[in-house]
Design brief:
Strand content: 35-45%
Number of domains: 1
Radius of gyration: 19 Å
Helix content: 10-25%
Distance between the termini: 22 Å
Strand order of the largest sheet: 2-3-4-5-7-6
Number of strands: 9
Oligomer: single chain
Length: 174
């Protein structure tokens, strides 16, 4: 059975054959897999040559960035604290606070422009980074996923990014 085809067909029909279903999951993404995904996403970036995320305990991450230009700049490491969870469906925004960035920005000067070239749905305000999950999913044609996600939370533990979510299909038996 082609499960991807089955899933796509069910999605086209708003999962009516699964109406009333609920599910909860906690996915622990290893540092290796997380960075493999990140590497693919930044491939061809004009501003970032390398980005490595190290999940730590307590909803903290360490992010090592190597900028493309100027190439003489050494790698920069920034601490990240996950401090705001999305509230679906009205506020699908994840909030992060960066630490250790002030001095880096002064040192990097014009090279810090990579902070201005962020993916869709991601923006900075001072030392805060916001990720609008809906806007980040849009370029991939995946915003409809949020029609089924009731709750989502992102955290971390040593060596793993944790994504917990609850999803469901509205309606009773089909």
């Amino acid at each position: 059975m082609d499960f991807l085809k089955l899933f796509a067909d069910q999605e086209r029909h708003a999962f009516r054959d699964l109406a009333g279903s609920d599910g909860h999951a906690v996915i622990r993404v290893s540092e290796r897999l997380l960075n493999e995904i990140i590497t693919e996403q930044i491939q061809g970036s004009a501003s970032i040559r390398q980005l490595h995320v190290t999940p730590q305990g307590g909803n903290r991450l360490s992010v090592r960035v190597v900028v493309a230009k100027p190439s003489f700049l050494p790698p920069m490491t920034v601490g990240v604290l996950i401090d705001k969870q999305p509230k679906l469906p009205d506020d699908p925004v994840l909030g992060l606070t960066l630490s250790g960035i002030g001095g880096l920005l002064r040192f990097a000067g014009p090279a810090a422009g990579f902070f201005k070239v962020l993916p869709p749905g991601v923006w900075m305000e001072g030392e805060r980074v916001f990720v609008d999950i809906r806007a980040a999913l849009a370029p991939h044609g995946l915003t409809s996923v949020l029609d089924y996600v009731k709750d989502v939370a992102v955290g971390s533990e040593e060596g793993r990014l944790i994504v917990a979510f609850a999803a469901g299909v509205r309606g009773g038996a089909a």
